[in-house]
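Holo model, iron/sulfur cluster. Inputs:
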Amino acid sequence: MIQMKLISKRFGSINPLSIDSYMNADGYKGLEKALKMHPNKIIDELEKSRIRGRGGAGFPAHTKVRALSKQSGDKYIVCNADEGEPGNFKDRSIMENDPHAIIEGMIILAYATGASKGIIYIRGEYQNAIMIMKASIKAAEEKGLIGENIQNKSFDFKIEVRSGAGSYVCGEEFSLIESIEGKPGRSRTKPPYPTEKGIHNLPTLINNVETFANFSHIILMGGDEFAKIGTKSSTGTKLISLSGNVKNKGLYEVPFGTSIRDVIFKLGKGVKNNRKIKMVQLGGAAGPIIPEYMLDMSIDFDRFENFDSKTGTGAIIVIDDRFDLFDILLINMKFFVNQSCGKCAPCREGHVQIVNLLNKFINHRATEKDLMSLENLANVIQQTSLCGLGQSSMTSIISSLRYFRDDYFSKVRY
Ligand SMILES: Cc1cc2nc3c(=O)[nH]c(=O)nc-3n(C[C@H](O)[C@H](O)[C@H](O)COP(=O)(O)O)c2cc1C
Ligand code: SF4
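Output:
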């Protein structure tokens, strides 16, 4: 068995719309334990667990939590459930199957940091998840787990649901903040970071859905025990959204350190019709494209660091040999043309030029000079864009230039 179910262990065995069902399956036990601890001790446990954020970049969770705890006055805790990255469906699965695990994690962090305002920002298309999260917040309020003077601990915490309008960039933390403030979703320059100046200039902690779902497990088992799962640099388990040309598509949970090949062949049961793998895209449209011979690479934030910040979302998209590299690149780049917020020129103009260059390759009109232009432009977009969208969107181009260079040469006109 290569699966290890921690976050998904209650999926299918509890009724997500029943708080009692959750409580009968050890739900809210982590909160009960946390409320008996000093807030700083909770953050110490997170530090010992060495958990890194599951939104993509793998930032150490305790660093942001401690930074928020040091701020005084009103503060926000935000759960990022925008999940706009193509190929990802893990956050929707948590919301629809185990919604209280997210709420419990948010309350634990509110107690640890002194935050009184909570927001779950959910992708607008996820109407079912929105309904479930709203009903679950209400149920937690009725049990006295959210509201004023929670469990007689003299701390107040409220949670509300906000939904995005389908813009991918609103998952980026500053665009998300702008969207919550009622403005168009556009990024800001940083610093200051959200934990210093976030929503309405108040300190704000933003974490991914899967990150929140880990917190009660860490408190219950203790940080040291949690850190024994996975690898030295990436502790715990990872939800994997496996899609594309595999026999068994779906959501799987594995300890960090599992190889991509095992996920595809042992859990996904290999490629449909036993065709050959042409390429695998990791993380989503903003992730790298790697060849079959690299599939023994393990799922680990440090390994992924060579690529980009979005690889760590856990999406694995398998593409078989019926597909041409340029089909996939063109789909990715058209997505970014549509999703660019338009604030900075490298991203707004650059993606359009990249699409034009790709079309030249597809129509066998590209020259070696176009290959150089593509490479240079991709680097410029990556290095000079204002926010993470433009900084990560070129990863599939840059990785394909490294691993599939012959595909480019086969289309160049000499
Ligand atoms: C274009 C773009 C889209 C993003 N979309 C999401 C998203 O849908 N969900 C998410 O958790 N993080 C997303 N992120 C990352 C967030 O900015 C942020 O790093 C993350 O929510 C932090 O949570 P974590 O520390 O728990 O990983 C996105 C980043 C970029 C650049
Ligand atoms: S990189 Fe793209 S999405 Fe980000 S601010 Fe610039 S134009 Fe907007």
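The chain has a mean pLDDT of 96. Residues 345-362 form the longest helix (18 residues).
Archived with the compound record.
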